Amino acid sequence: MFLRTSITALLLSQSPLILSQTLTNPVIWQDHPDLDVFRIGHTYYYSSSTFAYSPGAPVLRSFDLANWEAVTHSVPHLNFSPAAAYNLTSNSRAYVKGIWASTLRYRPSSDTFYWLGCVDGGKTYIWSSPGGNARSNGGEVPPETWNWTPRPVIDKCYYDAGLFFDEDDSQVYVVYGNTQIRMAQLSVAANGDLREVRNQLVYTSSDMTLEGARMYKRNGDSPWGPYTRRVLVDRIQGPLTSAGYAHQGGVVDTEDGRWFYVGFLDAYPGGRIPVVAPMTWGGDGWPTVVRDGGNGWGRTYPIPVNTTRKVNVLGPRVDEFKGVKLGPEWEWNHNPDDGKWALNNGLVLRTATVTGDLFAARNTLTHRIVGPKSRGTFRIDVGAMRDGDRAGAVLFRDKAAYIGLHKTVDSASIVMVDNLNLVEGSWTTSSTGRVAATGPTVTGEIWLRIQADITPAFGTSIGRQVIFSYSTDGRTFTNLGPAFAMSNSWRYFTGYRYGVFNFATKALGGEIKVKSFAMELV
Ligand SMILES: *[C@@H]1O[C@H](CO)[C@@H](O)[C@H](O)[C@H]1NC(C)=O
Ligand SMILES: *[C@@H]1O[C@H](CO)[C@@H](O)[C@H](O)[C@H]1NC(C)=O
């Protein structure tokens, strides 16, 4: 034991000397779609979509474009309309609504981050946070500085928006639209609120759909155009099979003037995952993406930036819920009932909804799955469950399955439940599940494990497999129920997630304590 500890310490102290000089795609093997990427000083930021998960619009940070960590969420609670749908307290729910194709940028003169996104086809919501003097700190923001507050809503949909602050950042622009690309100019009030002052059509595509617009300025061109078009990326093979072609995203430069394209792959069942490639500028002023030897999108490239600055890389991890705040890797299914959960050397989940439908139950806590193959293990104390309560570890999406406990007056049996389904399109519940297998009864602690293979299978009929298992000692695991085949459909947009839930079918009052979550590659 002592020997192992000292070897670990030795490796750790050496690690700054063996920094990787390679960028490997995908740079994050987790669902982070609709990305918007930008740089402040030596720091890169990345914003992505979360639909009805809350908090929403996670912000990631990197110093080299290859290693990314989660730092905050721009939308701490979904303040959209109708509120009851986002709170999961009405029959109308917000599945596949909420946050998609939004945008995040930093305004240096007021040291403020702004996020904005069109929600539910009608209005554009705006949140902002102070930057902790990021402009003078190479873009770094002290963690305690993040403090997102809502700004007045703009009563217009900036569809697939790209926010842009000009050099003189009193001028704010939003480029947006689908095929008809429009430019909105916003004014910034003394208190930081944004308001539209001008709006103009700047480009119409007659032959192809254009969306996910972003705006960058080189050589002092006018934001109002005129614009001409050139295709940068069109069905470039790789770097993964059955994951579509890299698309959408954005471009970003380094401090020394080199450029990179960050796009994403449709890597279902895992969702949409980001890939990076270098970009060069031709003498004609147009960029080209650098391909690998086979003329494809590289699986690897030289690292964009050599740095000794470290991040807490997204991926395998253990969370013992020790702090006073949930880590930024966690998101609830819809807004939680904050009166029904607590952190107390573990995560206490009190039942928050009386329902027979997991999709209607509040306070299911979710975590992105790391690919290509991983397992998520929740260690849970189930001693304070009440008659009728259902709790467990769920493989969460519109076609879901779980391993959990069904509590009765007398006992709590381990069950594996599949066939929890939403209807594609209306996202109403068509099936609340079928008990596929029943295991022994449990009284105190239980380890519930989901092992998921999210190797991309997009566009195929391959159902990637998921195995559910449990343990009463944390070491020996027993499989329960049939393997579950995941859906590769894109229509729910978000990929599969690991989740933990606790809901009542009879009456509130019960609780579970989640003592840890471990996500490991297998
Ligand atoms: C939704 O939840 C928020 C935050 O808990 C609360 O302030 C608001 O009153 C709720 N609204 C509805 C309609 O449920
Ligand atoms: C990073 O360091 C390696 C090894 O010294 C070097 O080959 C490479 O060019 C450097 N890359 C950048 C972007 O500076």
From TrEMBL:
Protein name: Glycosyl hydrolase
CDD domains for this protein: GH43_FsAxh1-like (cd09001)
SUPFAM superfamilies in the cross-refs: Arabinanase/levansucrase/invertase, Concanavalin A-like lectins/glucanases
Keyword Nuclease (UniProt): no
Single biological process term from Gene Ontology: carbohydrate metabolic process
Keyword check for Signal: yes
Family: Belongs to the glycosyl hydrolase 43 family.
UniProt keyword list: Glycosidase, Hydrolase, Signal
Domain of life: Eukaryota
Secretion signal span: 1-20
MF terms in GO: hydrolase activity, hydrolyzing O-glycosyl compounds
Domain annotation Beta-xylosidase C-terminal Concanavalin A-like: ranges: 319-518
Pfam families: GH43_C2, Glyco_hydro_43
